[in-house]
Batch of 4 targets.
Target 1
Amino acid sequence: MEIDQWAIGQRIAQHRLRRALTQDELAGLVGISLSMMKKIESGTRTVTRLAQLVQFAQVLRVSDLRDLTGVPMTLLPDGRRGHPSAEAVRTALVERGHGVEPVGLKELRRLVARAWNAWQEPSIFRYDAVGQYVADLVRLVQAEVNTSAGLPRRQGLALASAVYQLARTWTKRVGEYDLSWVVADRAVTCALEADNPDLAGAASWNLAMILSAQGKTEQSRAVVATAIEQLGSLAGSAPTPARFAVVGGLHLLGATEAAREDDASTARDLLDRAATIAGRVGETNHHWMVFGPTNVALHRISTAIELGRTRDALELVERTDVREAASVERRLTFHIDAARCYARRDNPIAAVHMMGRASRESSDELRYNPMARETLRQLAATATAAIRPDLDPLLEAAGLTP
């Protein structure tokens, strides 16, 4: 069935009006010019990339691309590139540790720490190494849980939750959203069975992250709010720095989700609360959930982008130093967000520079991150001879060369 490009523009206009957005606001949220927005709605300019269609669907809260195209289409992130280790992870999840010899808690702790460190440190082999670690660790932690009881079992469950949280972030990054949902749910279950409320809060943050990635903003906000409430209602001893950090991280995710629903006042309130907590605990990495003043600054940028306030986001970008960020993932997010802002403000040289920084930290990010790939496509579409020498290697690394 042929897609009527003119009708897509009409449908976008209808959904924009339903959400009470102006053309200028929708253009800012999607990352295009007002002139382009007008041309798309009038039908004089077509939406030629699936990624851009997905962006419109996400901003307009459209869960089925058929509502925009008029024909059945699956809503998936553009540029999804399957990773060879994904099937091994899927198999390990199904096997649930049966027939695997346990290695003991001490060795498991070492292996889990090694895997998380590999994910949070810059490396050109980051995606491949962690993909291999995850499949093996899923088998080992489940075998440990299967063969233990009492306190050792609870300790094994805590390690299992940490492994499933790592599996969640890796599977999400490589586009395996179905797997990401499964492991995020297992992470919460294991943390609860381990009777570890702080870990359960971190696992809830992971669950909310994949809900967010699937466009389920309302559900993501509900998970975040419930986790904050549960941690805040715990009686007994004074909260530990780890608990403060987990609550702070939940506030940051809540701010991002509020911004995605154009709830600017709630987003600002959550960011301010997170900043207060960050000032108290400093730069932390409890439960491998990086939190601190640097991460608050990064979320102020991403929240401004979600609200379509590119000028504000760029002002924050130029005042932010990410060298103190404990995880390469946070730095990569900053580089890509900065590149998006510069591209929107017609500064391709700065945008390419920031994408180059992302590539030097982890070149695989260009292959698997849909936002990075879309930003590179936009830069390539208008590239001048002056930036080609720097842009072309990035396009090659992302697999975007003809």
Target 2
Amino acid sequence: MIVIQDLLAVGSGALVGFVLGLIGGGGSILAVPLLVYVVGVSSPHVAIGTSAVAVAISALVNLVGHARAGHVKWRCALVFAAAGSAGAALGSTFGKQFDGERLLVLFGVLMIVIASLMFFKGSDASNGDVRLTRDSAPKLMPLLLAYGVSVGALAGFFGIGGGFLVVPGIVAATGMPLIFAIGSSLVSVFSFGLTTAGNYALSGFIDWTLVAWFVGGGAVGGFGGQMLATRLAGKKKALSNIFAVIVALVGAYVVWRGLR
């Protein structure tokens, strides 16, 4: 049974890494349901803590690839991540105090809501030259800080990387193209995940063996996701819509299981 659980952790990690590499976010929202319902982690809090570590490391691996391709707006990304980390610390503190089963139900509801937003969101932005400078700071800084804190708090509370929220948040705050938002979002996914993981580690809510298997699968899956993202760059809207449907279905299943 231990061997089977390890293999399931590798496969689940590969799926999460693949989605992170492909669209920059969304893979993390699948990590907790995969750990609970596929790998068989009995405690929702342990699943959240374990997924936070695994997603943070997977995001870092994917960030390296996107940075090499020049897809990261570092100043905007770092400000967003810093603000979000403060929100993640606060959100994860509240999350640990919340009943695990109720947390899963709320998690499922959040998945359905976000899937709807992903499916009906507008077209990609086109301001590829956007940068955080002394001149643009009065306009960009308040938006980056506001979106960062809000997204970080949700990410910390539910124990997710938050990339599926960071990508539209960065686009809304800066107007940068989707490909840059995807690369830049991974800075926040890493930061949020690390902050949440540290908080959960203090309470012993992390299975480090599962982390190792999950991250191993995530590294392989992430490489494949980045390769496919490069080839299908012009079809990201269709891919996002397909993924939104998958997230909604998984969210509905999580809610159903939680209510049972």
Target 3
Amino acid sequence: MNFDNINIAWEWEDLIKIVFSLIAGFVLGMEREWKDKSAGFKTIAIICLGSTLFTILSYKLGAGNSEDATRIASYVVSGIGFLGAGVIFKEGANVNGLTTASIIWISAAIGMSIGFGQYIMAAVVLLACLAIIAIGPIFSRYVATNVAKVLEIHMDSKDLLIRKEIIMDIKKYCRNVKIKQVKYSNHQLIVTLDIVIDKSSLNAVDQYLIERKEVTNFEY
């Protein structure tokens, strides 16, 4: 076996890694695309492919099994965090994009596994991710009935007794209630609560707050 044959073998293996990486990224990204999320199959596929390429270069330029083989690839872990943070945004009291950021993160990990030639590990993790994505909503709907919410209530009244009464009434519907913040702004009292509540009780809380004339606005 001469040196040229070794190079040809490596290039063919690199091609296999690239194809496998594209397939893995496409499969992970399609679920986000169907749900019309900010990062779809194009974004996830490119992230997975880029992680694979950086890992291949890191391994080759680092001379195989030496300590330098992971030097370039190690920066993928920190760099992918910036992309993940870009899809997380706060809307009112809610935080959205955490699942998409997690898929971006795991797609980079799968791409790196492929780049280092760990095909079985990458395939197992890919299947595990798809199983979590598929089973997660079912589990949340029928098993994990309790949800944590941040409830922000706006009141006209500064009366402490009314505030206390409303909070005590909300506690009847919740598993746990914790006062996070109380402030007075623009002639309104704003109370922010951390609550843990059964999903079936959310409508009852909404109806109660709507019926209270002192409450001008509320949001989760």
Target 4
Amino acid sequence: MQATKIPHTRPDSSFDTVVVGAGLIGLAVAWRAATRGLRVALADPEPGSGASHVAAGMLAPVTEAHYGEEALLRLNLASAARYPAFAAELEEAAGTTSGYSERGTLAVAFDADDRAVLADLAAFHRTLGLDSEPVSARECRRLEPLLSPDVQAGLRVSGDHQVDNRQLIAALLSAVGQRRVPLYRERVAELLVEHDAVAGVRLSGGETVRADRVVIAAGCHSTSIPGVPPGLLPPIRPVKGQILRLSVPSDAVPFLNSAVRGLVRGRQVYLVPRDHGELVVGATVEELGYDTRVTAGGVYELLRAAHALVPGITELPLAEVRAGLRPGSPDNAPVIGPTALPGLIAATGHFRNGVLLTPVTADAIAELLATGELPAEARGFEPARFAAAAPSAAAR
């Protein structure tokens, strides 16, 4: 497949690129592009406050593998493989921790039906050559002594890791600051288009920021930016997720040795321990538009499922309850690459894999910005895949 091309910069631009959105994806894109020598600016009224802030930070390409999503799985695996080097480089640049941890993941089944689903998942992993190890109920409890005696079976996935997403946001903010990337804490009021090409953005305060390329990394708000011509991007919908954070006393750390993903009577729940004494419990999946209200029902269902797996959580203080909006595309895979409008680039629609896909997305967009070519691992995820009559990559 021939690489996609984007236009060269014009000499009258204030910046080479403006990145719209300063969640994990936008921040990482800006940092990577700046390290390539590009003049980059960021625009976001509340950097790091959206889905990136609410997430649990699981880096779980294997336990998140789904039937029919093999192309997405390959992208997830590629990004997971980059995380150790990405985290190390970021920590050196930022002078602070990235929150990356190589703790593995234990997937467990609560009843007989859940056990059958887990067995099917293990068989699916084998067909794809993925590294997951079926373990008995007794072995599950040896690995995680606080698990309920009702847990019937498990899958040990040592390669599914985690990152503290809030520490990662802080590190990326520091890294872009070290690179002197301007951060406009304003909403983008309009995408500017001149002579059928991107010319920059106008901010809500009235200021114009000129650039030859604009990267849309605004999560579930990516398709509501004024001035973006209709049909250039697929609809990016918000998918609500309610999530809890519990405090673990210092004398009880580690409460869990690994992330635990459970099936409890068909309901999925995960428990992610942090080194600093926090246990993240999540998350609901609700198609309710832009509703970010926390509900008693959502909290109850999460706590009930988590308690079934780890009864001891009821003794932990409830520190935080939040709801975030994942950006979902029509096929639940990310939208990465150039649009049909010269200079407009997408880095959005990451749905449940935004934290995991941060390194590979940032590298792909930075390569596109620096060289005009989208790297091989990101091809197939361009916006044009949703357009029945979209021009081919070779024709653009």
